[in-house]
Amino acid sequence: MPLPPAQKSLLVSLSGPSSSGKTTLARLLRDLLPNTFILHEDDFYKPESLLPFRSGHRDWDCPEAIDLPALTNALTYIKSTGKFPPFINSKEDQNTLGACPASPSHINLAKAIIASSSLHSLLKHAKICILDGFLLYSQAEEFKPILELIDVKLFLLASEEKAVARRKARDGYVTLEGFWKDPEGYVEEVVWPNYVEQHGYLFVDGDVKRGRLDRKVLEREGILAMGDGHEDGHGDGDGEGFGEVLVWAVGEVVNRLEGVLGGEGGRGENEGE
């Protein structure tokens, strides 16, 4: 259906395991799509002293670590105004990312998809906000108000091996208190187990390690994902693989938002699967 008159921004969520390429993809989409800005879930962490413990570590990777009412309030503000919330002081963009893993040919293909779309003309009275977060599709009750606000839900995948290796290679993270560096064992004992617990329902038989997504569950939840995970070569976000993910994401966003803005269901399914 067409965009309600009171809605000034379309919300595109981008989630997946830590170090699956979410922030890199979010920044590329922001730079490629018209009238687009990013809101980072990581900017809604509670103070470190309020975080629970898991396996002897402060747990930054569980639902209890995020100020969900504040995130819901920010998203509501964005949808009604089309503006970045002035009460959010983003720290996420201070965190470093590696070189762009998408090739020039994939970036040009993504640009061509956007250029051939009607987004530029349709986005006269609305903007796109990309919500980037490691924990957005949790089934925890507290996430329901957030999920109800989102127009397009994208899900990235990464094998445990790649996700753990990438996370360990990171410099660390800017926080409210200063800077956080993962302690020894944190990724294996906290980050990955939390991801499995919160997202197992999206996989066949709850088997995250095998990586086969449950298409019926994805359809029910309105979540879009490319391929079936690392088994068929998608979701590890390196080189050509990341470029394919970028092109897929652009196609899905363009198609779904044209449907919302134009009220005609988009240009047809861009499955990319």
TrEMBL record:
Keyword Kinase: yes
Gene3D superfamilies, sorted: P-loop containing nucleotide triphosphate hydrolases
InterPro entries xrefs: P-loop_NTPase
Keyword Transferase: yes
GO molecular function, one term: kinase activity
Coiled-coil blocks: none
Signal peptide residue numbers: none
Keywords, ordered alphabetically: Kinase, Transferase
Protein name: Ribosylnicotinamide kinase
Species of origin: Podospora pseudocomata
Encoding gene (name): NRK1
